[in-house]
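re: that complex we talked abt at group meeting.

here r the seqs, copy pasted straight from the sheet so there may be weird spacing, ignore it
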Amino acid sequence: MELLQFIWFFLWGLLWAVFFMTGGFDLGVGTLLPFLGKTETDRRLMINAIGPVWDGNEVWLITAGGVTFAAFPTVYAVMFSSLYTPLLLILFALIFRGVSFEFRGKVASKTWKAFWDKSIFFGSMIPSFLFGVTFANIFAGIPFNDAGYHGSLAALLNPYGILGGILFLIFFLQHGTLWLAVRTTGILHTRSARAAGRIWPLNASAVVVFLVATAFYTDLYSNYLARPYLFFLPSAAAAALVAIRFFHQRRLYFRAWFASAATIVFATFFCLAGLFPNLFPSSMGDQYSLTAFNASSSQLTLTIMLVVVLAVIPIVIGYQIWAYRLFSGKLSQEDLAYEDVY
Amino acid sequence: MDVVFLSRLQFAAATMFHFLFVPVTLGLAFLVAWMETKYVRTGDKLYLSMTKFWGKLFLINFALGVVTGITLEFQFGTNWSRYSAFVGDIFGSILAIEATVAFFLESTLIGVWVFGWRKLSKQAHATVMWLIAAAGTMSGFWILMANGWMQHPVGYVIRDGRAELESFAAVVFNKFAILEFFHTISGAYVLSAFFVMGISAYHLLKKQHVEFFTRSFRPALVFGLISSLVVAISGDAHGVHVTQVQPAKLAAMESHWETTTRAPLHLIAIPDEKNERNRIELISLPGLLSLLGHHDINAEIKGLKDFPPDERPPVWPTFVSFRIMVGLGTLFILLTVVGLFLRNRLVESPRYLTAMMYAIPLPYIAIELGWVVAEVGRQPWIVYGIMKTSDAVSPVAVSQVASSLVAFVLIYGLLGAIGFYLMFTHAKKGPEPEAQS
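got the structure back, here u go
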């Protein structure tokens, strides 16, 4: 049973990591819309660069939430009801973003498009920031005990929480600029590549500050000190971070994007390996913390879910890669003249 | 104005709003896939134009369906945390399976279908829409498994203060869920059929794009007729099962107060909940309720008075919704049968076309009222017989739920209005000029 619970902790983490790796760049591109999208053409190119894949990416979030419910229902219940306000803010933002892509092109009016552009921006920026705030607070511990939750949205916006929010934003902006550099041509490509280069020092600084702050605000390093081999995770993240710059300087943008994806994945696993076995630690006392071992579903459920996931997820990854490869070419202004674009 | 009431209101609003858009996508996906396949097989560009026209309406609904669906996944946790902790072992896993097998497929392929016209062969592109359609219906299967379990919990054991899975097969082959699935999905197909027929009727009345909309109307007609019949047949079977396993709900559906054998059906009745009777009962057909509920004219139908007052569902909403739903369901069969006879002279049948045009909102009403019957009729239980709705809410402040409820009403109101405006405008405009028939 403990092995099953450990496996599910890992799979739960993997789902979040894959969401951040995929959804991260489309949330990043959406956040960049007012900054890199200086003309209508630019903005349409940016939107179409993520158009075919953003919805499939978002399902990793749905599945991460669904797996939290299925494998660790107590965590799902306590986490979603405690973090009511930030989660609903994320939800509202994602709702607006989700319809914006479809609605934006339907009326030939500047005001109409400007409204949906703002919708895309806030609908991308707010979830990026709040996911960071939420997870940072989870790493630091949430104020709840058996009497309930004793925090608030304001309390979540503490220094470490805000740092987490900024880190996620920067990660996604780096990831988004590199995606655009890969997929676009001309002025937008140049602008994106340059932005990616400018973000990198911010990225590296945020990572360093976060790694240091984590030592002071959380207990995450105790697992590392107990099992030093785990240090390969943050080392891999750091190496991937450096690789972003290495490839970017050589204008190998797809490799740089891939390095950015690796940074995000290893960074996620660094945090979750530190969190283990907690999924939702309490800052009011360890006896209240929800762990993989005290908050999971039954053995039967975990087993059945494991079979389903092992059978289906590889197929999902297969057809998602197929879809990505279908749309791996460069987008140019000429493409916008066709009707099979946003 | 307590947390329970507001949470119920919010969940009802979120679900009913979600269900304004999902049913259209479930059926329209198949219709669009059919149109695109006709194009691939015949090369007739009119079918391509149909695919794109109806496809645009499909996509507007799909976008709203997706975003409002995320709300529901979140809301089990945010507002019904006690419920989630209690049933997560079973309910949570079904939802996770839905995401894994259905959501991934439809959301990934939707991007391929929208953007991949020039990247795939004609056959491959059409196949993608068939897969999207299958994924949508598959998603409906799993969520109705979940709801079916709430209505008729099976395959579980209570352990450590929660429901734990004992038999996955029992949960998946839950008779209640299967009947609910056939009934709900065919209801969705009826809605999509009437959506297409109604919009087509508008243009046929104006005698514009006649070939285009005749070719749209006819397959929708067949789809709608078959689906309406499945709705009725599955509804009957579902009703018999409900009589067996949710007798309080059946009693509320029919406002049946006294337990009797050979129970009559009153064509007209006005419930008087306070006095535990019906104020009016007119045109009583002897034995018909027993016949409908048990397929046995002499069988016993339990009355509401057999249940303690705090275990009876609210009678008015359940009773009125059920009657209207059945009435509309019968009307849908009638309208599609008439259409079958008129299918070769639609343009010459303006009264029928007018009826079909104004009939567009009716399946929406029927399908939402069906959910009212299902969910309000299950009260006071959130899991029938095991957990009460009032014990299921999250320990959050009234102010939080009140604020989120207001936010949902405003946001959904705005996006819903915009969505329907876009649908209306696009439908009215008709196909692109190249598609002149």
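couple things i noticed - The longest strand of chain B covers residues 277-285. The first helix of chain B runs from residue 3 to 18.
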